[in-house]
Amino acid sequence: MADMVGKALRVLSLLGGYPEGVSLSELARAAGYPVSTTHRLLSSLQSEGFARNDPVSKRYSLGLRLFELGQSVSQARGFAGVALPVMQKLSAETGEPTLLAVLDGHNQVYVHSVQGSQRLQIRGEPGARGPLHCTSMGKCLVAFAANREELVASLELPALGPRTITGREAFAAEIAAVRERGFAIADEEHEEGIRAVGVPIRTPDGTAIAALSTAAPAYRLTVAQLAEFVPALRAAARELAALLPR
């Protein structure tokens, strides 16, 4: 057992050296293990969220479970991350909270949130998971994902708020609209009384590496008022695209 744990940790450490992902055979050679052993180790790591396999390229990379654990350490040590100054500037401009999330399988994982100047704020706890189909950031992550078509076809669409899109065709149309206009609105879709507007943070090839949003209580901002934040969100997203690791 100890030997297998050691091998799994070695594979995990090696994955950290391939930010763009690595093939099974290449990783097996680097680890010095048979392909079958490496595949078994990766399957175990993947089942627990420590590794992920890209559905398009079939390459393996580190999973967000490591990020979730790391958040506990970073928050305890007061580590803010490179994104926080940009997010703080955006919240100062809008007066509303700014949230950042990344895609992990069929969920989004909150990375950071910054509070605005208003008394009542919407929070996204770092490391917490959320749905994709009914949040502004989730829609952006789906619309600009490498495996967009697979997500649109396979995501579960439970009704979580009074205006959640639960029909497959309607959801596909919504994602197409998000992709065309470059931002997403969630109008009481995830939770009653909450509205949000989000934009993708994209690589040069257009793939989303994260998403950024501004959220507020529905009584405070209309959908039209939220949409007025899109230029500021896009400017922040462009800045973050140059700062965030890929």
Automatic annotation (TrEMBL):
What is the annotated role of this protein in its UniProt record? May be an activator protein for the gylABX operon.
- Tell me the protein's name: Glycerol operon regulatory protein
Which PANTHER family does the record associate with it? Answer: HELIX-TURN-HELIX TRANSCRIPTIONAL REGULATOR, ICLR FAMILY (PTHR30136), HTH-TYPE TRANSCRIPTIONAL REGULATOR RV1719 (PTHR30136:SF35)
**Does Protease show up as a keyword for this record?**
no
Concerning InterPro entries, the annotation shows:
GAF-like_dom_sf, HTH_MetabolicPath_Reg, Tscrpt_reg_IclR_C, Tscrpt_reg_IclR_N, WH-like_DNA-bd_sf, WH_DNA-bd_sf
Q: Which residues form the HTH iclR-type domain?
A: 2-64
Q: Name one GO biological process term.
A: glycerol metabolic process
A molecular-function term among this protein's GO annotations:
DNA-binding transcription factor activity
Q: Which UniProt keywords apply?
A: DNA-binding, Glycerol metabolism, Transcription, Transcription regulation
* Boundaries of every IclR-ED domain copy: 65-246
